[in-house]
Amino acid sequence: MKVREVADLVGISVRTLHYYDEIGLLKPEKITASGYREYSEKNLETLQQILFFKELGFPLKRIKEIINNPLFDRQKALEVQHKMLLNRRSQLDKMIRTIEKTIDKANARIAALSKSGQEEFAEKFKAIYENLAKVRHLPADSEEALAAIEEWYLFLNKMGDYSLEAFKNLGEMYVDDPRFTENIDKFGEGLAKFMRDAMAVYADRNK
Amino acid sequence: MKVREVADLVGISVRTLHYYDEIGLLKPEKITASGYREYSEKNLETLQQILFFKELGFPLKRIKEIINNPLFDRQKALEVQHKMLLNRRSQLDKMIRTIEKTIDKANARIAALSKSGQEEFAEKFKAIYENLAKVRHLPADSEEALAAIEEWYLFLNKMGDYSLEAFKNLGEMYVDDPRFTENIDKFGEGLAKFMRDAMAVYADRNK
DNA sequence: ATAAAGTATTACGTAACGTGAGAGTCAATA
DNA sequence: TATTGACTCTCACGTTACGTAATACTTTAT
Hints:
The structure is a homodimer. Chain A is mainly α. Chain A has helices at residues 3-10, 14-22, 41-55, 60-68, 74-115, 119-134, 143-159, 164-176, 178-185, 191-205, and strands at residues 30-31, 37-38. Chain A has 2 domains: 3-70, Multidrug-efflux Transporter Regulator, Chain: A, Domain 2, CATH 1.10.1660; 114-205, Orthogonal Bundle (Globin-like), CATH 1.10.490. Chain A is built from 10 helices and 2 strands, in the order ααββαααααααα. Chain A has a two-stranded antiparallel ribbon with strand order 1-2. In chain A, α6 (119-134) runs antiparallel to α7 (143-159). At the A-B interface, α3, α5 and α8 of A face α5 and α8 of B. The first copy, chain A, binds a DNA duplex through residues 2-4, 13-16, 18-19, 23, 32, 34-37, 59-61.
């Protein structure tokens, strides 16, 4: 069998076969007069073994040792690899927990900002809400609405990092969480809903 | 602060700082007349950020974007990274399950072999060696020799996967490694050498 | 002043291929 | 038979995040 045939059969690239040949991991049974690689059935079996160990995350160097050395302790190799994988997983878990905490903190900060009675921000909030209340009868994707929303977005941005996605989610909360809704609607009937829509439009448009 | 000082402070190598400078991830505040890197407090803060994202598994390229572009959507980047990590973990889990299954199967096979009486295992070896000793005067490619060798090959295969190549290599070792040679030749003068030849013939013939 | 310690700049090595580039080969068609 | 399209071959650079010399200059300590 020629390279392409073998490659397609097991689902790898021709380059990979070239590479395996190059590093002596899997040399074709013979090479034709014109320099083409010819793989045998036996080569295919070896390849299966190689791919099996590859699936288990073994580096090619180890695989080569395992394949070539009949005395190599496969069992022990498997156990060593198993431990390595467990270690890698716990590292990954740590990273995942860290990143989740970070995301949560960011969300909490945004929520806290919105809810906080900090005088400093309260006025800005009020100004923006009032400004928005004035245009709430316009469509959410109107020039005026979006301009007002942008002011809101830029203001929040000064407080901390967050994404347009988070901004959009914040809008959702305005409607879903009655504590927000009530607070905001004091500035105008249906303002929360209006803000949610405009924030969504703004976020989507600036993605 | 100079490189070593910074490096020790955050627990990275000098080379790493050189590298970060080289790829423009963290350039020192200034460079002295003699070409020494001088890091500022601000540099240290940036470095902390860099290391934080590195802990989360971000590639340096992304970190550079995040650090250099204040408008870069950090939140979204975190979410994307989070998804990537989850994917990597599920891949790892799959690998771990596979390797555990493999180990279990091997253990079961060994247990099955032992269950039939640990003596039987040793006896099989002895029987095969004695059997081979009887035909060692025949040519290595004779019917009888190859039949005996095949029994040997099939028996080994029951205990673990043996490629024909590995089988052949094992034969080489019988001659090259005196520990084997000695042990085997107890069953007959020159048996190791005979086995090596017969195993090579068997392996080549069944390729 | 001299030695020890620190720093700087190349530059190769690593893992496992991906991706051309340039050239030869094989089979089928005009 | 000549051409063409489909394959194959061998370079050889690019990728990631530094580790590890090798060589040379600077600063610090004695």
